[in-house]
Amino acid sequence: MYCLAFLFLPITRGSVLLRIIDIPFEQATRYHIWLGHLAMCFITLHGLCYIIIWVMQGVLLDKIVEWTDDGISNLPGVITISAGLLMWVTSMPPVRKKQFELFFYTHQLYAVFVLFLALHVGDFIFSIAAGGIFLFIIDRFLRFCQSRRTVDVISVTCLPCGTAELVFSKPANLRYNALSFIFLQIRELSWLQWHPFSVSSSPLAGDNRISVLVKAVGEWTDKLKSNVSGAEGERALPNQSCSKIKASIEGPYGHESPYHLTYENLILVAGGSGIAPFLAILGDMLHLKKQGKLCLPKNVIVIWAIKKSDELHLLSTVDMDLICPNLSDRLNLEVCVYVTRESDPPLEEGNNSEGFTCSVSSLLRGRGMSVLVGTGNSIWSGLYVISSVIGFAVLMALLDIFYINPLNIVTWWYRGLLFVVCMLASVILFGGPVIYFWHRWEKTVLAAEEAEDAEKDNRPQQSESAHTNIMQDNFAPEYRSVSRSIHYGARPNFEEIFKSVSERWGNVDIGVIVCGPMTLQSSVAKQCRSQNLRRGPLGPVFHFNSHSFDL
């Protein structure tokens, strides 16, 4: 029960608590995993001990199906353990990575687990774990309200490497940073599946848009690519309409503060599509430099490991020369790419016709995201949580005074059921009105934004061009003002790279951010530790940070 008391806290994605202690959701998830393993070990041991005793007494079947009004009922406990075991087995890494849909769907049994746990142990024992569960219910209802709004996909850029850039509209008061991520659902593909994607656009761009890069690596992403590009084997037409593509979004989530801007020297290490958040980071620095604002990073090295050279097209999503002319005079930026599965550069094939852009020219803004979750308004979030908690206390008091005590209700499972009903009712009846007024406030702000945009639209503006889909160079032309190198048939040697950086930059603090597979994170972490242990009085200090997460 004490493990369950903390089990749900790390996965309250929009929780004010996580924001106060500044632990982003992707890092808090690992505590949920550890607590889940520990809780299920105790629960399984608990169940096995009773099974052994009942077998020795010869009353196993009678005890398993027992549902009594006096004391603990066994059947709800059996259902609780069964649901927990299904979630536990399918959450193991071999199953989760190969059969993510199976893991995702079986994890929805958490509702069955919680309900029958309350019926099994009654209200008094259940209250030990009720705090964390209640906060999760508060967060889940808020996320449910946010995700009811469908968001228009303003444009989709499909690149030859099988990655699509999706651009959504967002309200100006929606705050996020370059290391944020969102959960995305497309109902045409699945009504239940939500998938996390790192934001690839800079929040400082000022265009009220947010974009993500989606790489086709699984069943859901393959369906998305097919949905965008048309039937399999058919080439989509340029500038085709994407007006039918709608999505539901939760978030954004992530760090409250942009810690990547607190280092003068940065090493960004990415593997494959892990380059997405670093494109947003580079966009942050470019916009700050262009606007003449304080931007601490001066020396930045991007180390990117990819399997094939067609992934280089991902760099075209950020036009550095357009955002910040004379970049080399303002920022010392190096981009080192390692193509691991190609020994030589591909032959020049002229214009690449595999990539295309579909855009919605009629939707200059489109239906935007909601600000109910993520890095939204802290005042409204606080009011929602406080009202739900007060509502729960009021409902429990009224229930105790006018129903439980007068009728002398002592049945454990029934009191546990009433406890859960009060938790749900307090969030809906007391927290719901706060969400309603929050939503009304959001619509008022959004109307003011649209009026301001309408005034801007009355002035003649140069039409916004879509991302180019013609790549005449192996390296994106948008990066020609940047020191760059491509290594074919090789992997990054972090010992040599970090040693070279130590000699060049000297006694400084260096922020190292990694986004990629666990093997890549481990290699970079070991090298940071090794360099720090061996550093001399004039050597740099490497500060390791990981942006990757595994769900």
TrEMBL record:
GO molecular function, one term: oxidoreductase activity
Transmembrane regions listed in the UniProt entry: 34-60, 72-89, 109-138, 383-404, 416-438
Subcellular location: Membrane
Metal-binding recorded as keyword: no
GO terms under cellular component: membrane
Domain of life: Eukaryota
Domain FAD-binding FR-type: start-end pairs: 146-259
SUPFAM superfamilies linked to this entry: Ferredoxin reductase-like, C-terminal NADP-linked domain, Riboflavin synthase domain-like
Entry membrane topology: Multi-pass membrane protein
Keywords, alphabetical: Membrane, Oxidoreductase, Transmembrane, Transmembrane helix
Entry-linked InterPro entries: FAD-bd_8, FAD-bd_FR_type, Fe3_Rdtase_TM_dom, Fe_red_NAD-bd_6, FNR_nucleotide-bd, RBOH/FRE, Riboflavin_synthase-like_b-brl
Chief place of localization: membrane
Protein's recorded name: FAD-binding FR-type domain-containing protein
Organism the protein comes from: Eucalyptus globulus (Tasmanian blue gum)
